[in-house]
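Service request form, structural biology core

Requester: graduate student, group of Dr. S.
Request type: structure prediction, single chain
Budget code: on file
Notes: please return the result as structure tokens.

Sequence provided:
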Amino acid sequence: MRDVIIVGGGLAGLSAAWRLRHTDALLLEADDRVGGRVHSERRGAHWLNWGGHVYAGGDSATSWLLDSTGVDSAEVPGSLSGLSMNGRLLTRGRVETYPLRVPMSWNDRLHMARAGIKVRAAVARYAKVLKRRPGEDDAGRQQRIYDFMNDRSFADFVGELPPDAKALFEPTVTRSSANLDQIAAGAGIGYFSLVWNIGGGLNRNILGGPSTLTESIAAALGDRVQLGAAVHEVVQRDGSVVVRYHQDGRDHEVQARAVVLATQAHVTHRIAVDLDRDLREALSRIEYGPFVSAAFLTGETTPRRWDDSYAIATPKRSFSVVLNMSNVVHGYGSERIPGSSLMTFSPANQARALLDLDDDDILRRYTEDLSAVLPGFAGTLTEAHVRRWPQGSPYSFPGRGLLQPALTRRRGGRVFLAGDYLGTLYTETAVRTGLTAAQNVRSVLADTAASAPTSPDALTSAF
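Core staff response, request fulfilled:
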């Protein structure tokens, strides 16, 4: 019997596996690679990226994991909130002034100003909600964040907006892979808080690309990571858990003292057939939105105007934001290294319009828009690849806070959940819940060892 089986080789599962690396652990991943929605590839000094791109610093679970694995990260330099709209590119200045600096009608500006005042006041309230209170645990703080303005959508909160005013809000709010009328008002406010106060949230790049972390963990675990292993059932027994999976054309069954389910909520609901009814019901109600992303490598040899910009919002384009993956390379280098790596991101309805197109059609739309957004991009492209994520990111919808108690309640048993759907900080939530699940497993293993009968031989050898 194994000590623990981890189902899912994304960031949450790998975090749990790393914490449990000194146990008899087995990680089962259905895909042919680890990382899940963390996916990058090295290209010399640069890296192509399609998934999670920024990570927590400071006193965070992610910082602990990076330090423990020896993987380097750096704070994102330069501007993190540029804007390209109606033919104008802005990479400097206060975000609040952007509506006055891009071409738009005075009617749009008026509506934007009114909605912006409401959003800024709500962000101030959100900052108080976000602040950790003395003696408070992570679960209590997370519940308070979910409950903030969770009774209506962001669209209901800001009210009816003319096209350009609405377009300005969309790149920030829809990064959750949900539309303005799908995401809860508080969650949308949280994204503005993140953009306007980036130092308090996700503000670091993993050097070499995010997959440096996931692949380093998998390499250290060796053959305890099994790819192409599709789990189809997890069943609890008295004193153990049975995991059934399909690999290499055959069905397998393995037993362990504990299991970490680090899969997306709908997968956990499908395979964990005997979880408590209230927990299964909560899992079935978690919502995911789609996104399509593409990675681009360019070969320019001279500096570009957007070199020190990390994120540029692109309303009314085929993608909502363009991310400069080479920002950290150019920002900290003494000389400007040739080339750049860019990532485009299309969430929610933008993604739905692209999912069924072939790669060439998507790349044609993306490259046309990139040429219009980034001065000097045209003619420098050397490589481009598309990735589709139909179940991309979990988002906080109106009423989401009501599900949290069932998802996080302490229960007896040997099955523990991990994943970014359990919180609001995406990559940080994935890491933190993975480490928490691993700690719960360690407690089960310690209890099992303490209750095991001592053999006569062991008694004899003790004297």
